[in-house]
Amino acid sequence: MAASASSTILFSSKSSRDSISWKTQLASTSAFGISGVSLRRRSSSHRQFVVFSMDAKPTVLVAEKLGEAGLNLLKEFANVDCSYNLSPEELCTKISLCDALIVRSGTKVSREIFESSGGRLKVVGRAGVGIDNVDLAAATEHGCLVVNAPTANTVAAAEHGIALLTAMARNIAQADASVKAGKWLRNKYVGVSLVGKTLAVMGFGKVGSEVARRAKGLGMHVIAHDPYAPADRARAIGVELVSFDEALTSADFISLHMPLTPATKKILNDETFAKMKKGVRIVNVARGGVIDEEALVRALDAGIVAQAALDVFTVEPPPKDSKLIQHENVTATPHLGASTMEAQEGVAIEVAEAVVGALKGELSATAVNAPMVPAEVLSELKPYVVLAEKLGRLAVQLVAGGSGVKSVKVTYGSARAPDDLDTRLLRAMITKGLIEPISSVFINLVNADFTAKQRGLRIAEERILLDGSPESPVEFIQVQIANVESKFASAISDSGEIRVEGRVKDGVPHLTKVGSFEVDVSLEGSIILCSQVDQPGMIGKVGSVLGEENVNVSFMSVGRIAPRKQAVMAIGVDEQPSKESLKRIGEIPAIQEFVYLKL
User: Fold this and answer.
1) Which pTM value belongs to this model?
2) How do residues 315-341 score in pLDDT, each as one tens digit?
3) For residue 232, with 0-12 CB atoms within 10 Å meaning exposed, 13-18 middle and 19 or more buried, which class applies?
4) Could you identify which of 76, 107, 152, 507 might form a hypothetical disulfide with 346, taking C-beta atoms 3.0 to 4.6 angstroms apart as the criterion?
5) What is its main location (predicted)?
6) Any catalytic annotation for residue 159?
């Protein structure tokens, strides 16, 4: 992989003589999408395909209905295929031709879909909040970013929750059906007041907190349970955070706003219903699976639960003969939480912007399976991103064949406090540099940590606080690989690890240390490292061999222990020398060992 100072990253395939490369801005850290192909000839035997932004567009498959405003945004950047109601088999067939997929809650994005994409699928956009219909583990393993639209439908979902709450309390749906059937049963549909009643909000995220605000306005006493919610945020709107059991036993009304996870699946069941006040009323605009529906029917029949108002169900649409749906004390709506005109357009725009940004290589603030790095941090770290990856690539190429890389230590020297230096992106790029040269796996910020763990690669990080100005985020990055043999003995430090160190100078990454030897060579093109006895004429001899083959030398630097003692010469070259030229360099009498490293 090569990267130029003009902020271009080229990702080359390893499986054929033709190297297919993806071009993206450095701030992206990886090619989340493609946007065109052009052929550039490097030599008579090596061709390279480079992607340019002005050429063909990526393809986005929209598998469920999306608002027109969102579609228009997508069409400005990509080819958009709107194919609704696809079967799983049809989706698997189509997905190999797509760079992005947008779904709502009705499409299951399974492991089979990621496997069927053949690595082309770079981003899945969920038009809504919940992502339980997307296999996040599979997405991460395949380096696919998953983004959602968590803010646009917050108010709509909260309003629907309050609508169900009030409609249930006053028997609106049942009374309406009765009147339309020609009846006038005023005494049958006497409701209950909300003022002074206790509402337990289960899940105090965006929607839950908005429901709490509105319920406070209706004169209700609001408590909430959420193990991750900050108490000060709850107190700010007059809500008390309580334990799960306290919420169940204290509430007159319960409103569910939790995601569907293994921990929350059927969290309301026979056992939890038994703890509730007799006559409790339940609202669910979150996920159907958080309630054991058969247990809810039993609780309704026993009078433990007086009424339930449900917008979501375990199976959607539910069976026509569902006892729950047909129960006279249940008010049901067909998953309308986000169904306002304003929310639909807002969700469409939010998810479209996230998908387009991801295809451009940007990291979305709504990504759910990648650590988020703020845009200003990405911009500042851009040259250090290149340095980190190239140090990883150099270090792993110094490992002798047969040595398994299991333990890596990364040291960052910085004048900034630890809280002011976000190293997640740098760690991901070092992982990329370590793994990609020796495998067929494509590494990006999404799957770097997962892939390292899967391969048993332990990466430890250390920060050294330096004196001086914190203007630059990092003064140096050092990569050490322990418990391995090296094909270049001089790369072994005094403590026995392979060690390379680099710095950014004038925006360009430089290799500044190999083992215990100080060098200074720009990390562009490729590098030849030579261990030698320091003596006059060595630079000229090596330069002559390369010059005879028309190999251009970009940088040359010598690090030595002392004059005429052991030294390491680092040579940057723009072209790959022939095997014959490398052999001739190795035959120069004063050169003890050498290694050619591709960047």
Assistant:
1) 0.57
2) 999 999 999 999 999 999 999 998 899
3) exposed
4) 152
5) plastid
6) no
